[in-house]
Amino acid sequence: MKKILLIAPKLPYPPISGYSLKNYWLLQILSKHYIVHLVSITDEYVPSDFYSWAEKIGITYKLFPKKRIDFYLKSAKSIFNKLPIQVNYYSFSDVEEYVDSVYEEYDLIYVILARAAQYALGKPKPKIVDIADSVSVIYSNAKEKTSSKFWKTIYLVEGKRMLYYENLCISDFDKALFFNMEERNSFNQPTKTEWIPHGVNESLFTYEKQNEKYKNWVTFLGKMDYQPNIDAVLWFVANVLPHLDRNLTFGIVGAYPTKKIKSLEKKYKNVVVTGFVEDPYEIVRSSLCVVAPMQTGGGIQNKVLESMALGTINIVSSLAAKPIAARNTEEFLVIDDPVDIALTINDIYKNPEKYVHIKEKSREYIKANFTWSIYERKIIDVIKSVVGD
Description:
By secondary structure, this protein is α/β, with parallel strands linked by helices. Helix content is 46%, strand content 16%. The chain has 17 helices and 13 strands.
């Protein structure tokens, strides 16, 4: 059985964010086919159940816990070496020394995200880098959205640096993987890049639990300390909420809500901030509709895939819709104008029968295109193309 050295800039556990959920499944899949050794930088706190999970799926690991100040000090190097901030942020000599000492024992080096590629660049081994979302594209979009001259400058400089670095990764690695077909195509290197979209847990296709309590909820699902999610929620509250029917509730469902997000519940009678919930799918499945009015960020929104898999009506921005490539008005609703979003939600509330087809077709679309079984077949095929059977 071939051996994979998997390098991660953050611990892919617990599976509560887009990053950790996707790579939680990646590790479970790879461990079925290969001997896997995980090298991961982590925060000081490592969840105690990580160790039992790792033992259960049969992977070994070497963790490098770091204090927050360690990351900040490393990122300051960008002033001098002109590397992207996030590359410096995850640059640690003890990680580099460890990887240098063990990589020759493995058949493949698999790196999660371009920011961790520094540990494999130049090494004479078969290599795959899972770029996932192109950060240079994300920063280019963010630069156009922000009104702050400071952040516009940061996004401009960091975007250029990341574009250079992502191209360097594509050139040096045997394969570079992307979630987003459009982002993959923008690099114009079809033989070096692959499109492998997210999956969803297939149990969602048969999930039917509902609760009347949430039937008039307009729900946003996502980890609420993630800036693009914060931006989306604040935009919705400022621009859409004032136009919603007074009988509707805007439910913000997700772990780690910031103080600013929590304050919305006190400021508005028809806003509920749940924080972490054991089963968010009950809320999503029961909701009138789910919204993903993403203004910043990029890549595939796993929350949209999950809520579509549950058979809910999803109203998404153009930014959130592009990577999913479903049909507008058939599998979801793509709307950017805030008043039009509100009018559509009010119409769903008053005339739900007009939108029943979206519930059915959204589930069918995800089942046909975005499951972890499909992801597994694609990722194993790519690995075999690099290292053989």
